[in-house]
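Purpose: get a first structural picture of the assembly so the mutagenesis plan has something to point at.
Setup: three entries, given in the order below. No constraints added.
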Amino acid sequence: MIPTIPQSRLIKVTYTAYVVLFFTYLALPLTVVAVFAFNDSQFPSLPWEGFTWDWFFGEEQPKIGVFHERPILRAIGTSALVGLCVSALSVAVGTTNAFLFNRYQFRGRGLLYVLMLTPLVIPGIVLGISILVFSSTVANAAWDAVEWDITALRPGLVLVILGQFSFITTIATLVIAARLQKFDRTLEEAALNLGAGHLTAVRTITIPYLMPALIGAFVVAFLMSFENFNTTLMLVGSDAPLTIAMFDRLKEGSTPLLNAVSLLLMVGSSLLALVMIAFQRR
Amino acid sequence: MTQPDLACTHLTKRFGDTTAVDDVSFEVPPGSFFSILGPSGCGKTTIMRMIAGFLAPSDGDIRIKGHSVLDVPPNKRPVNMVFQHLALFPMMNIADNIGYGLRRKGLPKPEITAKVGEVLERIGLPDIGTRRVEELSGGQKQRVAIARCMVLEPDVLLLDEPLGALDLKLREHMKIELKALQAAFDTTFVYITHDQSEALVMSDTVAVMNAGRFEQMGAARDLYYRPETAFVAGFVGDSNRWRGRVESVDGDALRLRSDSGLALLGSRHGRALSDGTTADIYVRPEAIRLGHTPGDVAHFDNRLSGTVTSLLFNGAASRILMRPIEGSEEIEVALPQSGEFAHLERGSAVHVGWSSDQGNCFAAGSV
Amino acid sequence: MQAAQRLGFLLLVTPLLLWLGLLIIIPHVDMFLVSLRERVGVGEYATSLANYRSFIDEPLYLMTFARTAVMSVMATALTLLIGFPVAYYIAKMARGRVRSALFLLCLVPFWVSELVRTFGWMILLRETGLFSSVLQWAGLADAPVEMLYNDAAIMVGLVYTSMLFMVVPLITTLDSLDDAVIEAGYDLGGSGPSILREIVIPHAMPGIVSGSIVVFMLSLGNYLTPIMLGGKDSLWFTELIYSQFIVRFNWELGAAFGFMLLILSSVIVWGTLRVTGQTLEKTMG
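Result (structure tokens, whole complex):
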């Protein structure tokens, strides 16, 4: 079944139809979310009551738009902050991990590599509760010992960041290691040969080569953090990131405001992804 | 005359505006080794893929043992193909690779095992059935790829530059071995390559292909000594080439004044060339005789004197470059290995000569 | 030189050990220890298997556990069946621009939050939703149809949400299959189904395994989709964990549930790897 093998028309048409159907299935939910952000109605459903921008810019009840809805704006800010912290941390650790596995042969390397991969096969919610349980064990011990309350170890943004970091680091490591694997080490040797020191060679030759992967890992980490739900749900405190805030709203009932936020999210993440692709192409 | 195993008539393949294969006809008699030799992009791979069934011809017919196979899908054609990179199945061991086609025919298991064992024996690798593909050497893979096809006893075996990926030494060795395998299996081989030495060494018949057409078809020796077109003269083997104006024609013999001013005698071997036209003359380096004195080459009708400008030592294929006094272009001359010229140096005076019969002339611009 | 190498090694291995130790290994050990605790008085605990006993004794817990496992396996199988032809089409049939466009289209839905995707399905499937309206308009139904809050809706959502993680590894492995190998299969007399069975699927095995593992994990650990699309009696195991931790504040039982989920996923992942002869390093790394 490749183009060079003659096939009957019926098979070809059926196959193409299937692929079209598949992409319709992919596009449908997102399309309705986007379209109903412009419906001039209290509910994101038919009938169509006319086109409106109110769910973005509306200023008075009942149609307060996204840009005037403080809790949502604050939640976006929180998500962005968490995302930046998680991306920075996981790219940093991902880079050291990639260098470690690429450059050093040591006892226990295989075991550590498998351990490094395990966060991918631990359900997010289990990661969340294990960190929750452990941090409160530590916090309780600190209180019992010296009456010192470590608020950072209670549910809140610090734990959310740590929780997301715990598995996003694996992804970052894999992305960066994949590119480092393709790096021709004789380039570094050439730099040494031309008078650079070890660190200078890495800084001037290897890191620039890795740049697309570093940026890619950063963007992927940011997107994953931004849309993470399961781990965050178990660790969140009073400052809710966007997904949690939207989830709470959705439980109360859906309004086109949520469609508007969703559409902004789609546009935002698509733009980010396009920027990343542009970087990879360069 | 017996029926040919493979016959292509007016075979044509167009991709959009470009014609990859342009009205090619040929027949391959049973048990022979037929090669298509040409530069990359000449259309030889397209012909092969049409015979195998992976491309449908725009025009013309392909017959195998007399039956047209145009409507036969590739998996039902009585031809098998050795792919350029062999395309051995990496997910199977060697025995399963070779048994693949037999399983498709629905043969019972014991029979498959027997046939696979037998063919492994024939290619001289009896104990490798349980090995994995990546454990084999390049030459072994080659033989397995051929065995995988031959076990199906195809009418025609197609080989698509299978030696291209091998290193030089192994390639030289495999040339001989392929020829031996073909004789052992007594099957018709159609072989495509851009490497002239592969084609010349192994084939009974070679077709030289260029820009979608067959330039010339014949035995290796004919192609080499009696090229019918300028392309063949230039593509097969090395040649010295001069361009000039034809000054006189007498039967097959002609006289040409090169652009650099040399007067050269050549032969047109029946091709149409008349006074005043521009022509190219091709002379092989080994057709030129080297001499220390003018007397050594006095019996040739083309004679030049000059000095050695370079010595190109390459063992048995050593040559010199010499610059004639009368003209500016350098001439490449084969260096005899009899020891007579062992002391030749840059700047030595030499005399060369060749018979006009060795100077193949073609109308200019016919390449 | 030796000392510098040692220093470099230590600098690189420290973050790895801190990360794995403090955020993965020790928390899971601690979670396991907590799950072995039984509250015997105010602030007093004893080590026992009481939490695991109540997991086994309570039919609701066990049923939910089994249901989650079975439905996750089904969702994985469905995702593979639906995704494979598409991945094959993109990797082997499509060429040039069409190919990159289709690949990109596959990725787009997954750049947005799972919440948004689930929300989309709610708009489509609920009683006042688009499908219901269309059915009424077309005269196929005379009253609003509720398509939300059942297991089928959960399945649709799970398959949708994890499709990317199946399709991308499949495309990657199928792409690395040389066309000539497929042609060789045909040339030697193979037909479509036999080539699929003997050549394409064995070659795609690492992709199938890694896609299946990820999809299974995502389904098993999913919270949003079952809770938003599922009905009152279609409980998901993650909901039990959440309610023990956040609503009932019974961390000991919650930790035991978490540990059971971890065991289940590990056993299934390990079993899949064993049966297919793959390793975690090969399929994930």
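The first helix of chain C runs from residue 2 to 35.
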